[in-house]
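User: Predict structure, ligand zinc ion.
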Amino acid sequence: MRWEDYRQSDNVFNRRDEGGSAMGGGRGILAFLLLRVIFNRFGIGGVVVVVGGFFLLSALGINPLSSSPSPSPATAPRGEITSRYDAEIGAVLAATEDVWTEQFRENGLGAYPAPRLNLFSGGVSTQGCGFANAAVGPFYCPGGQQIYIDTSFFDQLASRFDAPGDFARAYVIAHEVGHHIQTVTGISDQVRQQQARAGSEAERNLYSVRMELMADCLAGVWARQTAGLQGFSLEEGDIQEGLRAANAIGDDALQRQSGGRVVPDSFTHGTSEQRQRWLSTGYRTGDMNACDTFSAQSL
Ligand SMILES: [Zn+2]
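Assistant: Predicted complex:
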């Protein structure tokens, strides 16, 4: 995949510092308790000396509350923790914005509302899907129309799932963008209503499977349509990387209706063979209308 010369999306938000925020909060409480002890013992004069000293040290660039000399996630400023994947993610998300803006126009769907993509580390509180930890893998939360990715998943993709490569990662992002498209086009709502009327768990799962396979197909459509972009292109072997990832992973977690918590639900994603087939269908046709998994006779 060639993406280095492509633009960066404005919709990537680095929220990795929030995963360890409990520690930062703990420091604040400790400082407050310490000041209370000093006040009880030395009165307001003692507090003034300590707070004054704190500001003097801070002005000199020294953090008196830092317990270790090396920067830790808890003390790093907002958005400072980055990964080697960040620039690639920024370019891939930008390429989804440009492709889907054009596809929405061509298909008479109006303006494409781009989703936000949040990078997190360890855990993150979502808009509409409760608190999620990294164990759920990348996921899309329809409530706030946002994608959430802990990039350590990309390391797992290469090591644990044996699906390395930049396009394997791009496919994961494009699949989540596929869920966004299902949401903004109203497909997700329709399916949820039908799911609520379904008579059995198995029937409900079949709806989920069709949704997941459609997202795979839309990822394939995106991959095909990147051919129309300047400065972004696929290379030999890229689609194989994506197919390998589709084969390997039980991808993202779906939001449980009850409780609003994000939980892994890998058995509702379709078989490896189905996932590969629908990714291929999207790529072969380059047409989002070919992704109607609900009309398909067989998956
Ligand atoms: Zn999915």
